Structure formats: C-alpha cells, structure tokens
Amino acid sequence: MYFQKVTSLFGRTRALENQIDEFLDKVSEAGLVFSRAVRVYLEEGACAEFDAFMTQESAIEAREDTLRRSIEVELYARTLIPDLRGDVLRLLEDIDSLVNGFEGHLFRISIQQPDIPKEFHKGFINLTETVVTCVDSVVLAARSFFRDIESVRDHASKTMFFESEADKISTKLQRGIFASDLPLERKIHLRYFVERIDDVANKAEDVADSLQIYTIKRKI
Amino acid sequence: MELSVLLFLTSGLFLGWSLGANDAANVFGTAVGTRMVRFTTAAIVCSLFVILGAVISGSGAAHTLGQLGSVNAIAGSFMVALAAGISVYLMTKWGLPVSTSQAIVGAIIGWNLFSESVTDSDALVKIVATWIACPILAGFFAVILMPLVKAILRVAQLHLLRLDAYTRFALIFAGAFGSYSLGANNIANVMGVFVDVTPFTDFQFAGFFTLSSVEQLFLLGAIAIAVGVFTYSKRVMMTVGASLMPMSPVAAWVVVIAHSIVLFLFASEGLEHLLASGGLPTIPLVPVSSSQAVVGAVIGLGMMRGGKDIDWKLLGNIGIGWIATPVMSAFVCFVCLFFVQNVFDQRVYREVHYILSEPVLDKLGERGLVTEDLASLKDTEYRSSKEFLDAFKRNTFFSSQDEKHALRVAELRPMEISAENIDGLDQTWLTSEQFAAVKQLAGVRFDHAWQLQQALANYSQDWRFMQNTKVNKLQNKDLERKIEYLVRYFEIGK
Fold first, then answer.
1. Element spanning B203, H or E
2. Contact B391, B414 (CB under 8 A)
3. What average pLDDT score do residues A99-114 get?
4. CA-to-CA distance for B207 and A160, rounded, in angstroms?
5. Using an 8 Å Cβ cutoff, are B330 and B66 in contact?
6. How far is Cα B111 from Cα B113, in angstroms, rounded to an integer?
7. Do A150 and B154 touch (CB under 8 A)?
8. Which residues of chain A neighbour B158 with C-beta distances below 8 Å?
9. ipTM
10. Is B38 in the A-facing interface, judged by CB distances under 8 Å?
C-alpha cells in the first residue's frame, strides 16, 4: 500500500509537471496567435480569419485559466513546494495576465476597429513581434525556474532587452503618428493601441524581475 | 515483579518521554519546520525507527551503562533519571533544544557529589570535548555536503516539483537513519540505569524470536520516547526548523544528514573497529547530543551564507541551555537525593568501600608503583572514593592515571560465585569456554573485581585481556563489560 502511495505520488507529481509545461506552452501559443491576428488585421481588417484567431485566443485563455486553477489547488491541497508555492502562484498569475493582455487587445481591436494607415503597419508589426519575443523570453525564464535555475538570469536579461526594444519601437511609432497629418482623435486612438501592446512587454519585464527574486530565494 | 521496581521505572519512562519531546524531535525538526514532512508522518517514522534502533542495536550499550556513573542503588537511579527528566522537561517548556546526555551527565555528577564518589575527570573531559566537537563536526559536514548536493542538482536538472518529491523522501529516509542511531545510542541514557533491576523475563514471540529482558526494557523506554515525540515535540521542531534560520528543503536535508552522520560516528562500535583495523585514528564513543549536532549543522550553513541570517539571540539562548542543563540537573539531583534519603528513608546509594590490603599493594607493585609510602594506610577501610583518594594523595605523588588505577584495584566488591546461581547467567553472551571457567570457580569468594578476572584468566584464554592496542580495544572493552556483569551478578549485599 505504501509502495502504491509512493508511485501515485510520483505519478501525480509528473502530471502536475505536465500541467505547468502545458501552461507555459499555451503562453507562447497565445503570443503566436496574437502576432498572426495583428498581421491579418493590418492586411485585411476584422475579417473572418481575424475572428477565428480571436476565438482561438479566447480558447487558449480559458484553458490557461483552468490549468492555473488546477495547479494552484494541487500545490495547496498536497502542500507541495511549501517554501516556494506562494512565489509559484504569483508567477503563474502574472504570466496568465500576459495572455489576458493578448486576448483583451484582440477584442479591443475587434470592437474599436482602429484605422491604421499603411505607413504605420511596419511599426505595428515590429512592435507586436518584439512584444511576443519578449513574452517568449519570460516563458523561457519561467521554464528555467522550474528545471534549470542557473539559466533564469540569462532569459530574464533577454526579456529586459526586448522590453527596452519594444519601448524604442513604441516611442518611434508614436512620434511618427503624432508627426503625421491624421486628425488628433485618430492620433490618440492609434497611440492607445501602441501603448496597450507595449504594455504587455512592460508586464513581461515585471515578471522577469520577480522571477529573479524567486530565484535568489530558491538558491538559499 | 515488585511494585516498587515499577514505580522506580517511571522516572526512566519520564526521561524517555522528555527525550522524545526534545532530542528525537531534532531529527525531523528541519523537515517539519520547513513543512516538507507533515508532523504526523515524521512522528510515526521517528517513533518506529527509535524503537527499532533501541531494541536491535541498543542492547550493545546495555552492559556499558554502569560506566556512565556507578549509580548503585535503585532509588538513586530513579532520582538520577528523574532529575535529568525534569531538567529536559523545563528546557523543552522554554522552547530550548537540550540534550538528554547532558542532563544525565549533570544528574550523575549530582549523585557523585551526594554519595561522595569521585567523578572520573578524564571521562568528563572527554564528554565535554564531544559537546564542543559535535556541533563543529556537524557544521563541517554540512559545509562539505551542501556544495556537493548543489553540484549534483545542477547536473541532474530536476523539475522543481520532482526535486520537491525526492527531497521529501530523502528527508524521511535521513530522518529514519537519524532516529535509528538516536534510539541505539540514547536508549542507554533513558533505561540503562535500570538494566540491573529489570523486572522482565525473556519472552519468546510465536517461536520465531526471543525478546530478552533488556530488550523488553528498551522497548518500554522506546515507547516512552515515541509518546514524547507525539505529545510534545512539535514546538521544538518548529524552533529548530524554522526559527533559527530560513532554510530551503534541500538545506534541511543536508542538516539532517550531517546530524545523522555525526550521531553515527560517535555511536558506531563497528566503525571504530573498522578504523582501528585500518590503522586510522578512532573516534571516541560518547553519547552525543542530537540537538547540538542539528544546531551545529544549521550554523555551518548560516556561516556559508555569511552569517547574516542566523538568529544570534536564539543561538545565545541555546548556548545558555547547554550550560544550564547539566548544572540544573546536578542541582536538582542533589536536592532530590537529599529528600528521598532523609524524608522518604530510601537508600539512594550503596557505599563503596576501598582498602589497601596486602593483595592490593602487591597488585599496585606489579604496575611498578612504589608502595612503601602507603604502608601507613594498609588495611584501613575507606567509606567513599573521595575519602580514599584524599588519604592516598596525602601520602603519595602518583599521576592521575596511577591514582585511577589504584582506585580500581582497591575497590571492594565482595562476591561469591554461588553454584546455584551460575546457570542463571546470560549464556548467549558468554562463550562456552568463558562459562566453563566461571563454573570452575563455584564456591570461591573474591574481594576485588580484578581478582575474579585473574582467577578466570587462569582457567580460560577467553578471559585474558589482549594487548592494549586500538584494534584490540573493542574485545578488551567487551571483556571488561563481562567481568563487570559477573561482579554485579555475584556481588554480596547488592
């Protein structure tokens, strides 16, 4: 019976590891979907394909929430990693908010349908891709936190690098928008989207910062 | 079984309970303090392995226990154990991890003072030296182990959750190992003083194995320890595990292992023999405090991190406890002995007399000691070791080693090898040749233990001491124990 208990404990641990891996996979997937959706919107507007991406993003976000809740319950119900579970919980919640950000922006684009002039397409694509890369880096840092603690720092610094890149692109894009002949209300509308997309990178940087602290705690 | 014997056993059980509440808790303190192992799991594993260690490996120490201090009356044993128990209980109540060994040593010194017996200063120095060496060694092992474990984990790259699961099992196994060593080593502190008066008889279990009377006594003591673990150890576990320094579960494991290794090093006769056979220096086998080992390991890790996380105030309190325990224990023992003797009219010690008779002087002469100065003391009987040594010192200038030798030789242990009692000897412990030699001496009377040994050595090679080398130490020690056993068994007026 004891042996059974032991094997079931390791089985459940493996299942939980898989859930965490899937949770992080979903974040990367959400980034890719967001990037594709923005491209489609810039090329074809709020078309059926864009709607499909939006639905896909919602499904990812829903799955993400389910996984997060299940992981949290498991961690607390079985008193796993008692010294770090608070940190892990915050980490998962913060990462989840990145996915929420992606999903929310697609909804906002769908509802408000901003009219983005062709000359700014490249800027928006650049910004989106940099933000997605930034989120990917933080996902790698989070993976390292679970498996290879020494690499957390490397991935966290990449996250910071991409965040500052995103800031530069965002500033340049906003300067371009406000230097153009567009009416002020459109300028403000476009700025809103630029700021919102860039904000995901800022949040990713915050997660990377927290991760570095959790890592120090884990090393003790 | 006499009711009074059972009553006297209760103080040993109380001490066992204190040990469980305190020392045994240290084995799992860090694991429970970091919430890696639930208290119930820790308590079950700890109790089980303390019992196993005590019953399986504890009997080796059974015959040695007389050496702890020659507490020679049951009421005295009762008081020594009770005084130690009270000290440990009070320290535990104040949340300070203390050592039962320290409390017992303190209580024995209290008894020695009361009965005017001389405290063996060499043994005391050796014990106090281990009190210092034990935490330092544990700290040393922790500092060595930690980087090693870290390097392995870096290579293994385990998932955080997998590492968590493995660490839990590692903590339980390390705790089980530590509990086993603790049971084997410390049960003698708890029940050893009662070995000579055990009220039990050998018991055969379903025809498979026999539980000797001593093993039953130890089982009882170990159960008392288990009760202590369940009822009172949680508080100390939290002090050791959480209050001293914040610690990761892996560091907690390192602490438990470092502690268990130290306990093992100071307890294992097998290891001592192995080291001696390999011509290596041996480690003195002294009852070690698990509390000191744990605290030493935790501090070792704290030092590795620069010492900023260590709660020095708490550490200071623990240090005070270390000094206060033996002192308090000795004081409590002394006062209680006074009451038990004068108010309850119980004999708390049996006077041990010393005499410098003709054979004793001859025996001292064999060692090359000049005994002319002692002529004036010849045939005077002294009523305590202190009285004897005082007189001895007034007349001679012997080294402390020679004085100890004289004390051993002059000690009066009148005994008669009564033919009807010989068959009651523990024949599983004595070799057949040894037993045959004892039979040859039926009806003979001796005044001193060494006379019995010499007489036995004349009949059998098995009763002769081997050359005094480290490799032979174990055999000689075993022989000493057997002779002490015979002397106690055949002693007149015990």
1. strand B203-205
2. no
3. 95
4. 74
5. no
6. 5
7. yes
8. 147
9. 0.80
10. yes
Contact A83 B160 (CB under 8 A): no
- pLDDT, residue A8, reads 65
Check pLDDT > 80 for residue B163: yes
Return residues 71-130 of A near B (CB < 8 Å). 79-84, 88
Give yes or no for a contact between A92 and A72, defined as CB atoms under 8 angstroms apart. Answer: yes
The residue behind tokens 């303390």 is B50
Run of H or E including B211:
strand B209-211
Write the single-letter amino acid at B370: V
> Contact at 8 Å (CB) between B93 and B108?
no
Per the CB < 8 A criterion, the answer to whether B177 and B268 are in contact is: no
Q: How far apart are CA A11 and CA B380, in angstroms?
A: 79
B252: closest chain A residue by CA: A220
B460 class by beta-carbon count within 10 Å (0-12 exposed, 13-18 middle, 19+ buried)? middle
Class of domain A14-219: mainly alpha
Nearest by CB: A9 against B38, B154, B165: B165
Return left, alpha or beta for B307; rule: phi > 0 is left, psi -120 to 50 is alpha, else beta. left
Residue with tokens 């200071």: B316
Interchain CB contact of B151 with A (< 8 Å): no
C-alpha–C-alpha distance, residues B294 and B24, integer Å: 11
Query: Which residues of B are less than 8 Å from A219 in CB distance?
Result: 248
Give the domain ranges of chain A.
14-219
pLDDT per residue over A138-163, tens digit each? 999 999 999 888 889 999 999 999 99
What is the predicted pLDDT for the residue at B63? 45
The Cα B22–Cα B98 span in angstroms is: 7
Exposed/middle/buried for A132, CB within 10 Å: 0-12, 13-18, 19+?
buried
- Give pLDDT tens digits for A121-130: 999 999 999 9
Task: Compute the nearest-CA separation of A149 from chain B (Å).
Answer: 8
| Among chain B residues, CA nearest to A215 | B160
User: What is the secondary structure of B343-364 as a DSSP string?
Assistant: TS---------EE--HHHHHHH
